[in-house]
Design goal:
By secondary structure, this protein is mainly α. The chain is built from 22 helices and seven strands. 47% of the residues lie in helices and 6% in strands.
């Protein structure tokens, strides 16, 4: 049996061929020196790696060094590794020539099955909805014979309710982990590395909010299934300023660390439905995220050419302003943007709607360079990895691929944020105003975005109606002058 090299996102038991397989783990400080990650992310990854090494005991050789190559050059035994999760890591592993690269693990659909599905499409577009339905059939999830349970594949229409008019959703908080001596040692090491000038970080670190061990991940899954899943669906697209967690599972971070297999996560949710503990709409919405969107994004990352990450269909070239890239929430007056930047600063996490409809929406409206936006999302989020963020940001959030992934830009004005959140209630800006000192920067930015990209988007029928609305704006000239003057200033 070969020695299994485990990357820091391959930490679950399903990445080993046998419980007693010898393991190599490499803590390479150069990973954190090359890029400025969120401090909570660095803490989580190192804590998870060191906890896994402690669990494995003498079965694991744990090496702390500057680079992977330095550690690997000293290994005499044959090495194997499960397919890495980034193209750079895969090139490195394959390029050495002395490492057996195995098929990927940690996803519900294999690369071979995805490739066969792509070939079966012929010239038809690769749609997540079609992939998801195929996965449901193959894995027999929420199915009755060959038909979906409840007679519908998709309960999105039931899962788009605005937030309640209460400060929080009123569900039990997630199962928070309890830090131990390993966490304290990680924090001490990060402090020392920063003092010595070897690394620097974004945001705040602590207390640790995300599972770093399989035991913590299973406890988080148990708590979500028992106390939060039933409430997840209706408000999964809503935002509450005082409740960043709402009924979300917080399982993306431990799943992306490899601590949980998505099939076991989905099985637990399905069992809850069959027991009558959670409504079908909530369970289907959650299943869609796990074996639908998550797997689809993973496979697109490998299916699309590596040049995909550099696409810029809207010719967006503006640099990220410092107030955004540095998570300077206090310099921002817009309540939604300020509050969500603060949540990212403090936790390294917000749910998918703030990411897409506030952070990503604002970046696209302002024409920020997509590669910079992608890099920021990768570094600023605890669950952000290259495979996650390249398709999600380039294709979904910034529409930089011109429609390969999404059928239209996810651009919206302040009216959307007002409907789906409570942020506008205490904001100095008015979501119904386009021009003037009270003009909502999202509302004004939406129309400026459409004007700037009118020719590029003119052939898209899904955005034809708002584009035609530009001709009815009597204040378009003042609006464009106002937004030009705003430039990269904090709104």
């Amino acid at each position: 049996m070969t020695v299994r090299w485990l990357f820091g996102d391959q930490l679950g038991p399903h990445f080993l061929d046998a419980p007693d397989q010898p393991v190599l783990m490499i803590e390479a400080r150069s990973v954190f020196a090359r890029r400025r990650f969120h401090r909570a992310k660095a803490h989580l990854v190192l804590s998870a790696m060191r906890h896994r090494a402690a669990e494995l005991g003498g079965q694991c050789t744990y090496v702390s060094t500057d680079t992977y190559a330095q550690a690997l050059d000293d290994v005499a035994e044959p090495l194997s590794v499960c397919h890495p999760t980034s193209s750079a890591a895969l090139r490195f592993a394959v390029g050495r020539g002395d490492i057996d690269v195995l098929p990927a693990r940690g996803f519900a659909t294999s690369m071979e099955v995805f490739d066969a599905w792509v070939k079966s499409r012929g010239r038809r577009r690769l749609l997540m909805e079609d992939f998801y339905r195929d996965a449901r059939r193959r894995l027999h999830v929420l199915m009755e014979d060959d038909e979906p349970v409840g007679g519908r594949w998709n309960f999105d229409a039931d899962n788009r309710e605005p937030p309640p008019r209460t400060p929080t959703l009123g569900v039990a908080e997630p199962e928070w982990p309890i830090e131990d001596e390993i966490d304290l040692k990680v924090r001490d090491d990060l402090d020392r590395w920063e003092r010595d000038g070897h690394v620097s970080f974004l945001g705040s670190d602590g207390p640790r909010r995300f599972a770093a061990t399989r035991g913590e991940a299973l406890a988080l899954l148990d708590g979500f299934i028992a106390h939060r899943l039933a409430s997840f669906g209706p408000h999964e697209d809503a935002m509450l300023s005082a409740d960043p967690w709402m009924a979300h599972s917080l399982l993306s971070a431990p799943m992306n660390l490899g601590l949980l297999d998505p099939r076991e996560v989905v099985a637990r949710a399905e069992e809850a439905y069959h027991r009558g503990d959670a409504p079908l709409a909530s369970v289907e919405g959650f299943v869609r995220q796990v074996i639908g969107w998550r797997d689809f994004v993973w496979h697109l990352y490998w299916h699309l050419a590596d040049s995909y990450r550099d696409l810029n269909a809207l010719d967006a070239t503006e640099a990220l302003p410092d107030w955004f890239s540095e998570l300077d929430a206090e310099s921002v007056d817009a309540a939604c943007l300020s509050g969500i930047l603060a949540d990212v600063r403090d936790h390294g996490w917000v749910n998918h709607i703030p990411r897409l409809m506030v952070l990503g929406n604002y970046a696209m409206q302002r024409g920020w360079e997509p590669a910079q936006v992608t890099d920021w999302f990768h570094r600023a989020f605890v669950d952000g990895y290259d495979w996650v963020m390249v398709p999600n940001v380039v294709g979904m959030s910034q529409y930089a691929d011109g429609g390969i992934l999404a059928t239209k830009p996810y651009a919206a004005g302040g009216a959307y944020i007002k409907k789906m959140s409570d942020y506008c209630r205490g904001c100095r800006y008015d979501p119904g105003t386009r021009v003037g000192p009270d003009a909502c920067p999202f509302t004004a930015g939406y129309w400026a975005f459409l004007h700037r990209n009118r020719e590029r988007l003119s052939g898209n029928p899904r955005i034809a109606q708002p584009l035609s609305g530009l001709d009815r704006l009597s204040d378009l000239g003042p609006l464009l002058a106002q937004e030009s003057a705003r430039g990269s200033s904090a709104p």
